[in-house]
Task: structure prediction
Amino acid sequence: MLIFKTTAELKKEQSKTNISHTFTVPGNVTALEVDYSYTPKTVQDGEDSVKEALARYGEGNESPSDFMPVSNLLTLSFDDPEGYRGACHRQANTQKVIIGENSTPGIFNRKIKSGKWRVTLNAHYIGCSVNYELIIKGVEQ
Result:
């Protein structure tokens, strides 16, 4: 059963922010299946971002080519009605996360609680406009 679906575009200015979405899980759900993707993974003009970062944080002798390619990085974390449920801070831009008694690593293994949940998209780095899609399905008893 489809519980939640969203797509959106994030701009470069939204780097280092968190975007939360709430959804409601009904009482007959035994697991959640989360399909998540964003594109592009690699920043086309990443050299400019590297030059800017080196000017701010570098020691002066690094070459931008040493840090190429530059990748966007968005990750997910989850809260159930009892609080923090876990996080999936992985590099892949296409992921499937299972939440339940046999969860994906990073997510606590326990029964699904009905009620209000939150998924937070952690925008660690956005070097160009990024489109993401988040689909949450409930597995019923």
Remarks:
- The radius of gyration is 17 Å.
